[in-house]
Amino acid sequence: MSSIFTRIINGEIPGRFVWRDSECVAFMDIQPISRGHLLVVPRQETDRWHDLPPQTAAHLFAVAHKIAAALDQLSERSRVGLMIAGFDVPHTHIHLMPADSMAQFDPKNADKNARPEDLDAMARKIRDALRALGHGANVPED
């Protein structure tokens, strides 16, 4: 059975995408730990990140790097953190989260009632920031 992320990538479940290319996508986390929290996910369904082909892992980090620059412009937090946990969904994914401390990375801080319109607005801002940084070729239309 396909992971929930594969179902989002394939359009079976809606997602708020900020990046799409031939190897990966990035979309908003529906239970964000902080404003701007999103996931960078390979199209290839691989449970453990270290089982990814090295070139795919490198590509995920290159995309995360570009998106983090956009998030950094939009956020008032001191950093954009990156985390690979690998326990909640058996499909590799990188969390990008604006934060001021490690304590904020706790999943207990997730907003389980995030408003769809807030997620849509943030996705739009991230797409606009990515375009302004020159990455528009991989940014989906609103």
Folded structure, characterized:
It is a single chain. This protein is α+β, with helices and mostly antiparallel strands. The chain has a single domain (about 5-125), classed as HIT family, subunit A, CATH 3.30.428.10. It has helices at about 5-10, 55-75, 115-130, and strands at about 15-20, 25-30, 40, 80-85, 95-100. A five-stranded antiparallel sheet has the order 1-2-3-5-4. Strand 1 (about 15-20) and strand 2 form a beta hairpin. Helix 2 (about 55-75) crosses helix 3. It is globular.
Please write the CATH class name. Alpha Beta
Looking at CATH, the homologous superfamily is HIT-like
Please give the alpha-carbon distance between the first and last residues: 30 Å
Q: Strands across the major sheet, in which order? A: 1-2-3-5-4
Q: Report the uncertain regions.
A: none
**Number of domains in the coordinates?**
1
Q: What Rg is obtained from the alpha carbons, in whole angstroms?
A: 14 Å
β-strand number:
5
Percent helix, as a range, is 25-40%
Instruction: Please tell me what the overall shape is.
Output: globular
Short description:
This protein is of the alpha+beta class. The protein has 3 helices and 5 strands, in the order αβββαββα.
